[in-house]
């Protein structure tokens, strides 16, 4: 069993202290141990970032971008190796892991445009012999705290853009599946990133609190559950930090009577059960407008849910692997029991699944509930597992009211052929990311990702243009060179044109 290390100031660092177990979810066996960083270790990463910042901030954006171009190439060359590590520690299928990495690489590609996105704005002659411009300057030392469900993609939402904006970055990945995250950071070092610009420190709440409390850390990015997002936002902002904290979700798909049901079913299967539902953009509620739509949907879903191909994530050709931990599996099983107790109709029960040769793995089959109502816990709370709930309503307006009344506002979608209905939905729904016949409306890298309501704490979304604004400060400069031969009297009124 190996001990995973921190990456600080360009060096792998071993720490003798508390550790946590890293499991292979397909076997249920401990395969690594990961150190839980002390405050001293966190401070050493901060110190190395602070020392590297003056030189890095003055490195031309084009040279920063060249590092990202080499990084992108190394990520593509190491796709199989990275995907294998993700699958071994997270449990998701190799194909899903490769897809995650590709979406992360999109953000590296966007970061390669640093000379363009950092150009600033310029206006000549805003007044007599006066020019004005805006400059986008880095914050300094910034940090990111990322979740287990996307160990490659979510860190790549953060540090490539932060770094090309001239910042130095400290990453605290999930302690559940850290190996792929660490490898990717090492590839960035190999691409030519100077020592200290990026550090990776493993840890738990103690490491998070150390980053929150450190005065040198100017901004924090977070993706995870809403209670932790709210905690980080509250604790960091009262210390004057800039915070971008993405929280939980309960994503609804609305099925209209005119929907292409076969395509909608195919989309729902992937959106609800892909990656075992361990996605913040997973569709966990299907809202059917009319009993006829609901009955037809259930009839088509049942055989497909029962036929899901489930096994060890490192086996090719599967639909689902295991959940990330035994605790996660048991929590989802508890939600299923809660749904039955509250009166929902359990149409397909995924509990009790055993995979030959992997009997100790953290497996759970797909589950499907019908006749779920808004007061049930399985409707209100984020299950984060392979469970789809079907809710029946009488109209599009009722479906929209249901979604708008929910505390989360991360993602949603509508399946319809009616342009008027789709436009109304897009205009009036109180959700940050909306799909029309697209079940997982995750924005591409040159847009920005983020929800509304209790799915996001902070004013700016992740990556894309909002990411640039988050990792930079605007400085407005007004400059005048008066003519030598002229002399002007003092002006006591507020200056104007």
Structure description:
This protein has 497 residues and is α/β, with parallel strands linked by helices. The protein has two domains: 2-247 and 455-477, 3-Layer(aba) Sandwich (Aldehyde Dehydrogenase, Chain A, domain 1); 251-436, Aldehyde Dehydrogenase, Chain A, domain 2 (3-Layer(aba) Sandwich). It has 16 helices and 23 strands. It has helices at residues 39-57, 61-77, 79-90, 94-111, 114-117, 153-164, 179-190, 205-213, 226-237, 261-273, 291-306, 326-341, 377-380, 396-405, 419-428, 464-470, and strands spanning 2-3, 6-8, 11-13, 19-24, 29-35, 121-127, 130-138, 141-145, 168-172, 198-200, 217-223, 242-246, 251-255, 283-289, 345-348, 367-370, 387-393, 408-409, 411-415, 433-436, 452-453, 456-457, 472-480. The strands form six sheets. A seven-stranded mixed β-sheet has the order 15-16-17-14-13-19-20, with helices on both faces. Helix 3 (79-90) crosses helix 4 (94-111) and helix 4 packs parallel to helix 6 (153-164). The protein is globular, with a radius of gyration of 25 Å. The protein starts with a strand and ends in a 17-residue tail after the last strand. The relative contact order is 0.14.
């Amino acid at each position: 069993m190996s001990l995973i290390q921190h990456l600080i100031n360009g060096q792998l660092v071993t720490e003798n202290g508390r550790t946590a177990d890293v499991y292979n979810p397909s076997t249920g066996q401990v395969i690594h141990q990961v150190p839980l960083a002390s405050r001293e270790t966190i401070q050493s990463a901060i110190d190395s970032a602070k020392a590297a910042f003056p030189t890095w901030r003055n490195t031309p954006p084009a040279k920063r971008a060249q590092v990202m171009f080499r990084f992108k190439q190394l990520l593509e060359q190491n796709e199989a190796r990275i995907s294998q590590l993700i699958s071994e520690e997270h449990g998701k299928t190799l194909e899903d892991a490769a897809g995650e990495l590709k979406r992360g690489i999109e953000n590296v590609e966007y970061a390669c445009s640093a000379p363009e996105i950092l150009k600033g704005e310029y206006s000549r002659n805003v007044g007599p012999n006066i020019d004005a411009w805006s400059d986008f300057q880095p914050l300094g030392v910034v940090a990111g705290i990322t979740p287990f469900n996307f160990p490659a993609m979510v860190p790549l939402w953060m540090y490539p853009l932060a770094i090309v904006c001239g910042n130095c970055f400290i990453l605290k990945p999930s302690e559940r599946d850290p190996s792929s995250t660490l490898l990717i950071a090492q590839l960035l070092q190999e691409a030519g990133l100077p020592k200290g610009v990026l550090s990776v420190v493993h840890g738990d709440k103690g490491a998070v609190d150390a980053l929150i409390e450190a005065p040198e850390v100017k901004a924090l990015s977070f993706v995870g559950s809403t209670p932790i997002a709210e905690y980080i936002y509250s604790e960091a902002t009262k210390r004057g930090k800039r915070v971008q904290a993405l929280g939980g979700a309960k994503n609804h798909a609305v099925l209209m009577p005119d929907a292409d049901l076969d395509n909608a079913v195919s989309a729902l299967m992937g959106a609800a059960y892909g990656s075992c539902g361990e996605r913040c953009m997973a569709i966990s509620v299907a809202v059917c407008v009319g009993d006829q739509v609901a009955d037809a949907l259930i009839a088509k879903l049942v055989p497909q849910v029962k036929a899901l191909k489930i096994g060890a994530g490192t086996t090719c050709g599967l639909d689902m692997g295991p959940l990330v931990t035994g605790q996660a599996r048991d929590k989802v099983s508890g939600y299923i029991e809660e749904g039955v107790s509250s009166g929902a109709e359990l149409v397909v029960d995924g509990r009790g699944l055993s995979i030959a040769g992997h009997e100790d793995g953290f497996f759970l089959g797909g589950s499907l509930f019908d006749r779920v109502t808004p007061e049930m816990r399985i409707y209100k709370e984020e299950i984060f597992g392979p469970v789809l709930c079907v809710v029946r309503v009488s109209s599009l307006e009722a479906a929209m009211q249901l979604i708008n009344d929910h505390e989360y506002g991360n993602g949603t979608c509508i399946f319809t052929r009616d342009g008027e209905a789709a436009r109304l939905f897009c205009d009036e729904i109180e959700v940050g990311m909306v799909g029309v016949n697209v079940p997982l409306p995750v924005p591409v890298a040159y847009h920005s990702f983020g929800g509304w309501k209790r799915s996001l704490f902070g004013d700016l979304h992740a990556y894309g243009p909002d990411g640039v604004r988050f990792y930079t400060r605007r400085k407005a400069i007004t400059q005048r060179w008066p003519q030598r031969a002229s002399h002007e009297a003092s002006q006591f009124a507020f200056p104007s044109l």
